[in-house]
Structures are given as C-alpha cells and as structure tokens.
Design goal:
Helix content is 36%, strand content 26%. It has 205 residues and is α/β, with parallel strands linked by helices. A hairpin with a 5-residue loop joins strand 4 (167-180) and strand 5. The longest helix is centred in the first third of the chain and has 20 residues, at 2-21. 16% of the residues are buried.
C-alpha cells in the first residue's frame, strides 16, 4: 500500500509538471510610448494621436483663424465640448479629447479653455476655498474672472465594418466642427478617415 501511494503521488507530480511546462508563454517588452502597436485592429492610442494632430493642423490652416486674430488682435479662446462615439467599440473619448487639446496648446495659435465638468469643478472649488478666508488675499484666486470660449469644438466618431470569413475591413470616420460661440456659426468642418484590414486564420471573430 505504501509503495502504491508513493507511485500515485509521483504520477500526480509528473502530471502537474507536464501541465505547467506546456502552458502558454508570455513575453513582455518595454517600448517607446509613441511606438505604433496594432494588435487587435481596433481604435488605439496611435489612431487618436495621428488623427488629432492631422485635424488640428487642417483646422488652424483655414481662413477663420487669421481673420479672427486680425479682427480681435488676440488669439481665439477655444473649448473642446464633446466627442460622441458612434462606433461599435468602447472608446474613451477623453483620450481623444486630450490629444486634441495637446495639439491645440502646442500650436501656440489659440488659448485652450478648461472643459466643463471635472476640470471646471476643480477650478471652482479652488476659487471657493480662496474666498473662504483661509487663504491670504495676495494668493487667493479671484472669482468672476474665468474666460469664456470664442469657439467650441464638437465631434463625432463612427465606424463601418465589412467582413467575410477570416477577413475584416474597418473604416473609422472622425468628423469635427468648430462653432462660433457667439453666433453659432460653423467656421470650420473637417473629417479624417482610417481604414484597417484585419486577417486571422479562424473564420470566427
């Protein structure tokens, strides 16, 4: 009985070793954050960065910017209002919005105003704290001096999927519109498209 028990335990140990030894292997490598990585074929950080840079470049090359700067002798104040996701994927619109804001700020051609929501709420809380009497008058932020936007930027993200057997073709279409906050007149409209073809050996997705 003792020999049989030892034999059974030995077989179990070998079985465990064989199972763990044949498992999937994973390799992780650190890469530069701007490295293009298309693993699933879905919308990713590279798409957000390249799209925002291309669209803001086109927007600021149009006549509205020079006209406003000349008439007002100052750069326009802009606020990114809302990006609506109509694709079939869960996309964090804030990632795209921050890419747009970064491209706008880095251009040096406009003043970017904080988004309504958590950003402005933080500013309001700081101003309320400054007015509470706990902060010196020299360093407390003033209430009533927030800037309004001359233009608001709104956008829409959509996708079209075509597939057959083991191949998918996916088109992303991003549309942005710049609207005069005083007159509600649209001064610029732009779109950007990205198309990806994804192939996999299995016909199921």
């Amino acid at each position: 009985m003792r020999f049989g028990a030892i034999f059974v335990v030995s077989l179990m140990s070998l079985s465990l070793i064989g199972t763990t030894g044949c498992g999937p292997k994973r390799k992780v490598a650190r890469v530069a954050t701007n490295t293009q990585t298309d693993l699933s074929g879905k919308w990713n950080d590279t798409d957000a960065r390249l799209t925002s840079e291309a669209m803001i470049k086109d927007c600021f090359a149009r006549p509205w910017l020079k006209r406003f700067t000349k008439e007002n002798d100052r750069p326009p104040k802009m606020r990114v209002w809302k990006i609506i996701n109509k694709t079939d994927e869960h996309i964090d619109a804030q990632v795209f919005i921050k890419n747009l804001e970064r491209a706008m700020v880095n251009s040096g051609l406009v003043d970017v105003i904080a988004q309504k929501g958590s950003e402005l709420s933080s500013v309001n809380e700081e101003q309320d704290y400054g007015a509470s009497g706990r902060v010196s008058d020299d360093s407390a932020p003033s209430i009533g001096n927030q800037l309004g936007a001359d233009f608001v930027l709104v956008g829409r993200m959509a996708s079209i999927l075509d597939q057959v057997e083991g191949t998918q073709a996916k088109l992303y279409k991003i549309t942005l519109e710049l609207i005069d906050a005083n007159s509600a007149r649209k001064v610029w409209m732009g779109d950007h498209e990205i198309k990806k073809v994804i192939e996999q050996s299995s016909a199921s997705w």
